[in-house]
Design goal:
Layout (H helix, E strand, L loop, with lengths): L1 E5 L4 H12 L3 E6 L2 H4 L6 E4 L5 H8 L4 E4 L11 H15 L4 E5 L6 E3 L2 E2 L11 H17 L4 E6 L4 E3 L8 E4 L12 E3 H14 L5 E6 L1
Parallel strand pairs: 1-2, 1-4, 2-3, 4-5, 5-8, 8-12, 9-11
Antiparallel strand pairs: 6-7, 10-12
Helix pairs in contact: 1-6, 3-4, 4-5
């Protein structure tokens, strides 16, 4: 499989790229900084700004699937996140790519039916704008994604932590967070990357959101 990873210089995008490479897939990492992209050994590199339609189309053309691991923590306005989701719904089919997989947010997951983590008073204020933007991106996919084979993977609401692949994670379709018997929900970046590449290989959640945790 030929996989393009937008945001491949980031820690999540890089983890997904490395996991896909370990499984024998051909990977192109895409971003604005060629030096950072070059850290993903074994991947091809394409320098493109995700806000540039033509540059992005040229970078992803010829791939089987695009993975977007785009985020924006530069201020209170996180408009890049939903804008990227909307643009990708247009550029992916225009470039002749069959599938789109988005690394989303976990704050809009429900910790119990009808109660989203982001709506709790205890939700950390510094992360709220980003969580709301990720929730908006998901709604754009659901409302405007007809005709595009998309999927949206959410991490746990809080504990996506740097770490190696360990196995043993569980996945669940829909809006309810995966939790253990003590009400905890966490996953390492290695296992989160594995869950995404599992989906790229197994194609179980087309047009749907899913999440992964222990």
């Amino acid at each position: 499989m030929r996989i393009a990873v937008i945001g491949g210089s980031g820690w999540i995008g890089g983890s997904i790229a490395r996991e896909a490479l370990r499984r024998g897939h051909a990977v192109t990492v895409i971003g604005r900084d060629s030096d950072k992209l070059a850290r993903v050994a074994g991947a091809d590199v394409a320098v493109a700004d995700v806000t540039d339609f033509e540059a992005t189309a040229n970078a992803i053309r010829g791939h089987d699937v695009v993975v977007s691991a785009v985020t924006d923590r530069s201020g209170d306005d996180r408009s890049l996140i939903p804008a990227t989701a909307r643009m990708l719904l247009e550029v992916v089919p225009a470039a002749g790519v069959a599938r789109l997989a988005i690394v989303g947010g976990g704050g809009s997951l429900e910790i119990e039916p009808g109660v989203r983590e982001i709506d709790r008073p205890e939700f950390p204020a510094p992360y709220k704008a980003e969580a709301q933007a990720q929730a908006e991106a998901l709604e754009i996919l659901r409302a405007e994604g007809d005709g595009v084979d998309w999927t949206y993977l959410s991490p746990p609401p809080h504990e996506l932590v740097r770490g190696e692949k360990t196995g043993g994670y569980r996945v669940r379709e829909g809006n309810i967070a995966v939790m253990d018997d003590q009400g905890h929900s966490r996953i390492t970046s290695g296992d989160f990357a594995a869950a995404m590449v599992d989906e790229l290989e197994q194609h179980r959640f087309s047009g749907r959101r899913f999440t992964a945790a222990y």
